[in-house]
Structures are given as structure tokens and as C-alpha cells.
Predict the 3D structure of the following.
Amino acid sequence: MNIGDLVRYRDEDGEDVPGDSGFLGLGIVTGFDKDDDPVVRFQCDPQRGDREAFFKWNIRVINEHR
């Protein structure tokens, strides 16, 4: 997982959370925190911004930045 990768949020069961549920949708990795967890900006969550990291196991890369 790298900065610029297109990602989707996964729930505790490892299932993708659908974007049409209004939860998060697709996101882009904008950085990493001190624990090396990805900081992601999601299209359906404009209030959170890009300051909050998500656990790696909750993020699935769907398109790697080249």
C-alpha cells in the first residue's frame, strides 16, 4: 500500500462496505501515521478530511498508484 493507491474500506468480517450505503465509498491513501497505518481521504466522508488513519486490515487496495 502506497500514497496514491485507490482503496475501499472493509468491515470486521473483511467484506467491502458498499459506497452506495453512504458510509465511505472509494478513497485515496494520502499518507501514513506513526504506526504505519494509512491515512485515507474517502469520497463519501468529507467531514473527516485526511487527518485520520485507518487500521491496515480495514483497507483494501483496489488500484495501485503507478
About this structure: The chain has a mean pLDDT of 80.
